[in-house]
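Consider the tokenized backbone below.
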């Protein structure tokens, strides 16, 4: 688990963030419960990894193109 939610998780891949963006747009779930969807879509992720990726996505959601987060979608 990461101590800093803005720190990229080691398991992070760009497709994880794209998936979370698409999941949010679909309205299928409240994003606070999205880690289980992430785990189901990417079985290589464990519960903690999925949670860390979700927390990172949430922390960086407001502006994915912010200069403070220049490479959000780059592992």
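A designed sequence for it:
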């Amino acid at each position: 688990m990461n101590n800093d939610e803005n720190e990229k998780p080691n398991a992070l891949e760009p497709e994880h963030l794209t998936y979370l963006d698409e999941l949010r747009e679909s309205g299928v779930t409240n994003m606070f419960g999205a880690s289980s969807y992430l785990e189901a879509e990417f079985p290589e992720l464990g519960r903690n990894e999925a949670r860390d990726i979700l927390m990172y996505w949430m922390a960086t959601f407001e502006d994915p193109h912010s200069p403070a987060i220049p490479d959000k979608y780059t592992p």
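Residues 14-59 form one domain.
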